[in-house]
UniProtKB/TrEMBL annotation:
Biased composition, class Basic residues, residue ranges: 1-12
Span of domain Glutaredoxin: 87-153
One Pfam family linked to the record: Glutaredoxin
Protein's UniProt name: Glutaredoxin domain-containing protein
UniProt superkingdom: Eukaryota
Residue numbers spanned by region Disordered: 1-50
InterPro entries referenced in this protein's UniProt entry, alphabetically: Glutaredoxin, Thioredoxin-like_sf
Ranges of biased composition (kind: Low complexity): 18-28
Species this protein is from: Hordeum vulgare subsp. vulgare (Domesticated barley)
């Protein structure tokens, strides 16, 4: 009545690749293809069929964190993934000195390359921090973070390394150039006081007889400049 399980011979083990290992290899190859695309988009092969030699291959490994955005992140990635757009998430607050200096250095490097940058100061608008959290899939992402053409380039250390090796210019090639003069509307600050509430983030409702939160501006009573930030 009782089957003796002790007499059963152990099944022969088969040497097969596990799905997890296959997926890891596949994802790794995708990451490397994404890294190559960042460097190769700016340097297409010549028409004569000549070979393109990529120098300083070792420094290009700084782009290992470069990933395409998932479909679930399209809402947050859409303003970032415009063609060859350079987007920098940073902070202008001096509360944490190393972070402030890292952000300042990256901004100076990009300005030295005369690249037009969509600068998103998380201290000016909390919505930028929310965007970055979704894109990085981290609750407290480090600052600054640079994106080019919808792909993550990296933090301050990555940008410095690419700049020192000369590859950062290739990464941002094809991006809009820095305007010769600051924006006449906002003076380069990219923000202005809300016209609807006068920058108070509150407005008086005659219907309710009280103040309501203004939905046209952020928590600081500011709106993005429509003249220099029309792209999103």
């Amino acid at each position: 009545m009782w089957t003796s399980w002790t007499r059963r011979k152990p099944a022969a083990r088969r040497l097969t690749n596990s799905p997890s290992s296959n997926s890891s290899v596949t994802s790794s190859s995708k990451d490397h293809s994404g890294i190559s695309s960042v460097l190769d988009d700016a340097a297409a092969p010549p028409a004569g069929g000549g070979k393109v030699v990529l120098h300083r291959v070792r420094s290009s490994t700084k782009l290992r964190t470069c990933k395409s955005f998932a479909a679930a992140e399209e809402a947050a990635a859409a303003p970032v993934a415009a063609e060859r757009r350079v987007v920098l998430y940073f902070t202008s607050l001096r509360a944490v000195r190393p972070t402030f200096e890292a952000c300042r250095d990256v901004r100076a490097i990009l300005r030295g390359l005369r690249v037009g940058v969509d600068e998103r100061d998380v201290s000016m608008d909390a919505a930028f921090l929310t965007e970055l959290r979704v894109l990085m899939r981290r609750d407290r992402p480090p600052l600054p973070q640079l994106f080019v053409g919808g792909r993550l380039v990296g933090d301050a250390d990555d940008v410095r390394a690419l700049h020192e090796s000369g590859e950062l210019r290739r990464v941002v090639a094809g991006a809009p150039q820095l305007p010769p003069t600051p924006c006449a509307s906002c003076g380069g600050s990219r923000f202005g006081p809300c016209v609807a509430c006068g920058g108070s983030h509150r407005w008086f409702s005659e219907k309710t007889g009280g103040f309501r939160v203004c939905s046209a501006c952020n928590e600081n009573g500011l709106v993005r400049c429509t003249a220099c930030c029309s792209g999103g």
